[in-house]
Amino acid sequence: MILIVGSTGRVGGKIAHTLLGQGRPLRILVRPGSDYHAFVAAGAEPALGDLKDPASIAVACRGVDTVITTASAGERGGDDTPQTVDLEGNAKLIEAAGVAGVKQFIFVSALLARPDHPVPVPRAKALTEAVLRDSGLTYTIVAANGIADVMFPLVVGYPLSVGKPVTLVGEGRRRHTFIAARDVAAFATAVIGHAAALNRRIEIGGPEALSWRDVVAAYERTLGHPIPVQWIPPGELLPDLPPAPGLTQLVSGLMATLETFDTPLDMTEVSRTFGVTPTTIDELLAEQQIRESRSETTLST
Known about the structure:
Blueprint: E1 2-5, H1 10-21, E2 26-30, H2 37-41, E3 45-48, H3 54-61, E4 66-69, H4 82-100, E5 104-110, H5 120-133, E6 139-144, H6 148-161, E7 166-169, H7 181-190, E8 200-204, H8 212-223, E9 229-232, H9 247-258, H10 268-274, H11 281-300
Parallel strand pairs: 1-2, 1-4, 2-3, 4-5, 5-6, 6-8, 7-9
């Protein structure tokens, strides 16, 4: 039995769909009222609970061989914070997994995670990695670079959708191997029981290192017209992001951080080992364009 924590999120949902498609026995930790019924209809076993509730986590871990967690406070608000979810919640999950005798604990983390990171989420992920390493569990840390189909729509897609220019931080020349969410999910499922993944931190990214200037250029190729761009210095807040609690501060902080270094990962060996071919930005944007066109067609009819 595999337990997924974070199945209603973008990456966690893709992991759940992949495993269900493989016919793997799957349990998902879900909160009452969340949208999880499609997974149940496809064969997943729901375990109602919350990372902030240790008793529910203990029940969810019973009889489980593998735990995969992508859980993060992300854009939530209220009691869900990087401290209560990303750090304390995952620590409780690790403890419960140890008690339950889980054979492999897979933690989807961030390439940029480090204990002194100025942004709370990657800082909490780094601290969770340390807890996991010290737990005695057999672990796999999947350290993903920035999620392309999260970051690109926020920084480029949303401003364009509301008639605003794209705002970039600094000079926009630092290069990063952004990775598609589906590729993170593919790696997270490929490492289950894989000998090369046990007690390892596996760094993953896309097939090419891109600057934000490159990202804008890719959007221009896909859309077929120039995109207006404005610039702000690191430390200022991006002006046109979706209205969500804490999102502006989170994305602005990440964008400023990304302008201080490059992450040119060579994915050749990791891709070969785990059988995952990363998605290019042109492939990703073309598929996004097709989905949007189909959605517009459906609405018009």
